């Protein structure tokens, strides 16, 4: 039985009883070859009496002494720690769920729900490839990792913004549930119900098998593989229709990862862990556009943006697999070397670290090319406010996409990072790895348009890194020395990219560079970089695809119809193999609302970022990612007042008594109906 909550309007009974919560972000269930992680509610939702946890000492009320379990615990973010969450997990019979109030500012202390050794079992270091370097034996990369995001909880955990919803919850708790001077709170009590029932259980093999069970016309799927699309482009057009090895083609791969994650499903800002690297690479690609067209280097530079790297290198392992199986535009024999841009947003004292693999460097030809790449990077940093160094010779590579290339063969390569050993990033793969953490801030009273154009200090620093990367790539590809002075990244582009991905994607610059049918993907919030499932391209993939095309491609004067049909004119049958055409909506001229669209011709392509394990149906694979995401019916939360159990039982008893009495009365009246309702029989010849 629930009672009306004061101050809630509405005509329907349901609206008078419940206050529905907005902006609820859940923790969801993910599965891999061996187990499941994440959270879920029961099928009908979990209901508990609200309890605002004020300190860790206050846990006893929830786990032992509180008289009205189960409790739904409200946590302020400083209390969202492994210690508290594991205690709640172990006492889960008295815990109905947890709501974490997301703060409006980052905490002072470090927080990373990821593990201390990211992608521990899917990189290159293993029992077969220098066991001494495996399992982070030499370097613990993420020392602040508490592993919370890889635990399984059998109750729902939601995140709520610190706004009106949380104010209503606190007010309800203070008025009804708070124990004053040790006294027991009196009914009615404030309660909450959270719905986040997950369909998949156990592991990926189990849920994929259930997906295949076909008992009905429309079989119900219970999980989907994690995945998306990689974005790639090349400085010289490569025939994408003819897959496999290209004679005389030598490729330098410039790579960055696109995705990130946090404990909660819809919050993955990934500012340092992902955005700093791929924004640097986008700016470097733009800086190289003119030089590579005017004086093409001997080798082709291939820009690769990998999706799903957080979950055992989905994107990079797929590209390597496709290269090995002649399913990509080039193969591994075409790959000369790799430069990967990792976390570069927090380089303290303007210092960057050049990481390479100590095992493959034992091969003299690989060592020679690695030294050359490092020399090119150091030479490119000349005249810039950047200093570089190498870690000790015995240190392994940090978690990076390049490791998946090394699993296939010894390829020369360097990973550029802002840390020597352990990550500088104190908020790796958490909701706090955001614009604030990268010190992206704007003077007060600026409009969104002014913020878009304002060049922040972070943008200036990343512009220097992008310039250095661009020059080094040009030298690595065998470019001519005189061109180097003209290669310079644009700080205006970098600051717009950072604003678009970390503050709001719905801005005038992004709007100009995408087709009109993608406008719905732009939002007045930071981009969510969680990879998602394979059915569709995510917002980051679509944005990076169109940004890369605009930054590296050229405008061609053709009709919208020809552009969308991948041709320059009606007779053109060849260009679609070498280029990709996209019609973007452009800007509206002054005093007009009609945008002037145009066609961009570029070498930008999408390639599948789906783990090969799902193509091969090897759901227990140890070589490839097996991560899936459970499906669910609904995600929602609501609060209401609940009566005492005694009163509920009394009401139920009275209801049953009334029902039995009415049944008895009905029976008596029915059995005596002839007597009670009879009247004298009328004569047959009666007329009216």
Automatic annotation (TrEMBL):
Q: Where are the transmembrane segments?
A: 649-669
Please state which protein family the record places this protein in: Belongs to the nicastrin family.
- Where does the record locate the signal sequence feature? none
Query: Does the keyword field hold Thylakoid?
Result: no
Record-linked InterPro entries = Ncstrn_small, Nicastrin
Q: Which UniProt keywords apply?
A: Glycoprotein, Membrane, Notch signaling pathway, Signal, Transmembrane, Transmembrane helix
Q: What is this protein called?
A: Nicastrin
**A GO BP annotation:** Notch signaling pathway
């Amino acid at each position: 039985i629930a009672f009306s909550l004061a101050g809630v309007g509405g005509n329907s009974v349901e609206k008078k009883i419940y206050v529905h919560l907005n902006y609820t972000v859940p923790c969801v269930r993910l599965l891999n070859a061996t187990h499941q992680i994440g959270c879920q509610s029961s099928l009908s939702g979990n209901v508990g009496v609200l309890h605002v946890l004020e300190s860790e000492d206050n846990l006893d009320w929830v786990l032992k002494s509180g008289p009205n379990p189960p409790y739904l615990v409200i946590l302020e973010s400083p209390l969202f720690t492994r210690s508290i969450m594991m205690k709640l997990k172990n006492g889960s019979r008295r815990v109905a769920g947890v709501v974490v109030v997301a703060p409006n500012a980052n905490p002072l202390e470090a927080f990373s729900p990821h593990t201390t050794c990211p992608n521990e079992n899917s990189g290159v270091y293993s029992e077969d490839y220098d066991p001494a370097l495996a399992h982070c034996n030499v370097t613990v990369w993420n020392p602040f990792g508490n592993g919370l995001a890889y635990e399984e909880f059998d109750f729902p955990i939601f995140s709520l913004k610190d706004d009106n919803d949380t104010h209503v919850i606190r007010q309800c708790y203070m008025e009804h549930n708070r124990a004053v001077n040790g006294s027991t709170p009196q009914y009615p009590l404030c309660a909450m119900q959270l719905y986040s029932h997950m369909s998949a259980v156990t592991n990926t093999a189990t849920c994929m098998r259930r997906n295949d069970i076909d008992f009905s016309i429309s079989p119900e799927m219970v999980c989907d593989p994690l995945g998306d699309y990689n974005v790639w482009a090349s400085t010289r057009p490569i025939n994408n229709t003819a897959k496999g090895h290209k004679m005389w083609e030598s490729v330098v791969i410039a790579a960055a990862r696109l995705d990130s994650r946090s404990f909660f499903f819809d919050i993955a800002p990934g500012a340092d862990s992902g955005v700093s690297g791929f924004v640097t690479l986008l700016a470097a690609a733009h800086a190289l556009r003119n030089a590579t067209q005017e004086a093409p280097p001997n080798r082709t530079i291939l820009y690769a943006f990998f999706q799903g790297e957080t979950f055992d290198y989905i994107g990079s392992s797929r590209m390597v697999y496709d290269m090995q199986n002649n399913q990509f535009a080039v193969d591994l024999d075409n790959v000369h070397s790799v430069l990967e841009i990792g976390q570069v947003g927090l380089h303290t004292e303007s210092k960057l670290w050049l990481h390479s693999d100590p095992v493959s460097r034992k091969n003299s030809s690989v060592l020679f090319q690695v030294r050359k790449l490092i020399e090119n990077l150091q030479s490119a940093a000349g005249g810039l406010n950047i200093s570089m160094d190498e870690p000790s010779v015995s240190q392994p590579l940090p978690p990076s996409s390049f490791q998946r290339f090394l699993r296939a063969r010894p390829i020369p390569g360097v990973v550029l990072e802002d840390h020597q050993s352990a990550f500088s990033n104190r908020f790796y793969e958490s909701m706090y790895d955001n614009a604030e953490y990268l010190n992206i801030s704007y003077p007060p009273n600026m409009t969104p348009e002014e913020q878009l154009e304002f060049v922040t200090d972070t943008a200036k620093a990343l512009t220097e890194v992008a310039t250095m990367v661009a020059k080094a790539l040009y030298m690595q590809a065998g470019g001519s020395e005189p061109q180097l002075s003209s290669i310079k990244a644009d700080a205006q582009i970098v600051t717009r990219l950072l604003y678009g991905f970390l503050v709001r994607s719905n801005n005038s610059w992004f709007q100009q560079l995408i087709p009109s049918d993608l406008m719905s993907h732009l939002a007045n919030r930071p981009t969510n970089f969680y990879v998602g499932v394979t059915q569709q391209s995510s917002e980051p993939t679509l944005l990076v695809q169109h940004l890369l095309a605009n930054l590296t491609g050229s405008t061609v004067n053709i009709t919208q119809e020809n552009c969308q049909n991948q041709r320059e004119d009606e007779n053109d049958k060849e260009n679609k193999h070498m280029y990709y055409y996209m019609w973007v909506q452009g800007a509206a001229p002054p005093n007009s609302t009609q945008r002037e669209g145009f066609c961009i011709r570029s070498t930008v392509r999408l390639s599948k970022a789906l783990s090969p394990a799902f193509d091969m149906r090897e759901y227990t694979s140890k070589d490839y990612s097996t991560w899936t995401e459970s499906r669910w019916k609904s995600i929602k939360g609501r609060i209401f007042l609940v009566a005492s159990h005694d009163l509920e039982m009394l009401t139920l008893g009275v209801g049953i008594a009334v029902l039995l009495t009415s049944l008895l009365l009905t029976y008596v009246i029915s059995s005596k109906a002839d007597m009670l309702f009879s009247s004298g029989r009328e004569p047959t010849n009666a007329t009216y």
